[in-house]
Amino acid sequence: MTPARPENAGRAGLLAALGAFLMWGLMPLFFHAFPDGVKPFEITLHRIFWTLVILLFALWFSGALGQALALFKRPKVIATLAASTVLIAINWFVYAWAAMNNHLAEASLGYFINPLVNVAFGVVFLRERLNAWRWIAVGLAGLGVLNQIILVGQLPWIALTLAFSFGGYGVLRKTVDAEAGEGLFIETLLILPFILGAIIWLESHGTGHLLHGTTWTKILLLSAGLTITLPLTLFNYAARRIPLSTLGIIQYIAPSSTFTMAIMFGEHIGAAGILTFALIWAGLAVYSFDLWRKRAR
């Protein structure tokens, strides 16, 4: 089979990144579909567990399950995936809590900051280089983030946790020698004892909703794995095929969508919030111009 040309791989990675961040941007709609009484902790447990189930069957049917399990023979890969598991689990739990407790604006701030963290990590750890146009794009986005921090007026712990946990996750997954689906399967497998134990504990005490919830709640919980599997597989695919700095700029799609969700759900967004949007999208415009300029050349 003829290997994919580099430009085709880059284009596929770009499309995968766009799909991932669009899905993440609309994620608050999933959390708000649950009835009152279902906690973010339980939803996140089921998101992780059913992700593992989906990946188990997908790898088995594709014949890649043995290849995924063979990663356990490579201690360095498993150690890296264990670290990425911790980071992404923190990210999942904090985001779910923010989405269900009227903190979407601060959650969006975290993902506004995250691309800058990606750019910084890419330059510092992966020795990626930015040209002048991309520095201008990052600078405009940085002004938007600074404006948003001033708008919040306090230490945004949710935003900082989301930004640095996902930024670190992106670096680890870009450097680890494991394909997207296989790596995600190992990550969910590593955390399975905790997840399964917590679900059993909730159900045995009558506070879980998989056995004790409404039909609609059960459907949402059973489908929760798709909310991780689809966007994160696309993200991991993209992270191995396009520069981390490019991934960081595209990622503004998700926080912009989440910011819009915050407005839809009644969180107060003033004039400063509109200015944040303007600066962020100005940075995206400059970055897009640089991509067009290179392609034309």
Structure commentary:
With 297 residues, the protein is mostly helical. The protein has one domain. The chain is built from 15 helices and no strands. Helix 3 (40-62) crosses helix 5. The model has no long low-confidence stretch (mean pLDDT 85).
Summary tags:
297 residues, mainly alpha, globular
In short:
The chain is mostly helical. The chain has helices at 6-25, 27-32, 40-62, 65-69, 75-100, 104-125, 132-152, 157-175, 180-190, 192-204, 215-222, 226-239, 244-250, 253-264, 271-296.
How do the helices and strands line up, and which of them pair or pack?
Blueprint: H1 6-25, H2 27-32, H3 40-62, H4 65-69, H5 75-100, H6 104-125, H7 132-152, H8 157-175, H9 180-190, H10 192-204, H11 215-222, H12 226-239, H13 244-250, H14 253-264, H15 271-296
